[in-house]
Amino acid sequence: MKLGFIGAGNMGGAILRGYLSSGKIQPDDVFVCGRNMEKLEKLCHELEVHGCRTITELMEACDVILLGVKPNMFPEIMPQVAEKYEKNKVLVSMAAGITIENISEFVGPDAKIIRVMPNTPAMVKEAMTSVSRNANVEDECFSQVFDIFQSIGRAEEVDEQLIHCVIGVSGSSPAYTYMYIDALAEAAVHNGMDKEQAVIFAAQSVLGAAKMVLETGVDPVQLRINVCSPGGTTIEAVNTLQEKGFTELVQSGFQAAVEKSKRMSE
Asked: Which residues bind NADP(+) (predicted)?
């Protein structure tokens, strides 16, 4: 497989580095095209991958092309992609608000298109990525692309109709989690701990709790109950959070992200 990246900014670069470090692809099979030639040359030198000066050059060389540009760039780049697109190639998009149907309008109804929604923990190989495909993508092609995103964390295949939900629950949710960590750390500072140490205590506790959910398979509600000894400190904190509307507040933030995603896709 020859893999191409049109745009390799923070997210695209994280995906590229993660997949290379997995050892499942060699640098000689990777091609990158970007607008900033200075950054492109630096990246290609660092990772020993091929740099392409034009989209045409990259399209001619690659079997799987990851579209790592912002949504507002699609009207500019997609005509160039379409010019050299062939039906054996797979296009992978991670742009919010750009549907599979939007892309097929440029490259035709027979094109193989996959839409993904990773999140920023890709930078530490702990991403959660949704992967959706159209009917033209065969299982073998899909598996190759799916493997790319498994190399930077976890991936799940979902119907594209769930993409707005995905954005609420994982695409945007690292930001809510950072807010939670910061709030815990600030509370610890107010109780005498220095900020740097407080962030470590809060962040490690979030990491550990998340691993408990993923590795034990126990429902989060039950895990919460298990921690709450009657009359103890944890049940006191949980009751206070519930009284203040903690659950409803988080769900409101989630829904706001979902509704914004829907408006972006209109």
From this structure: 6-11
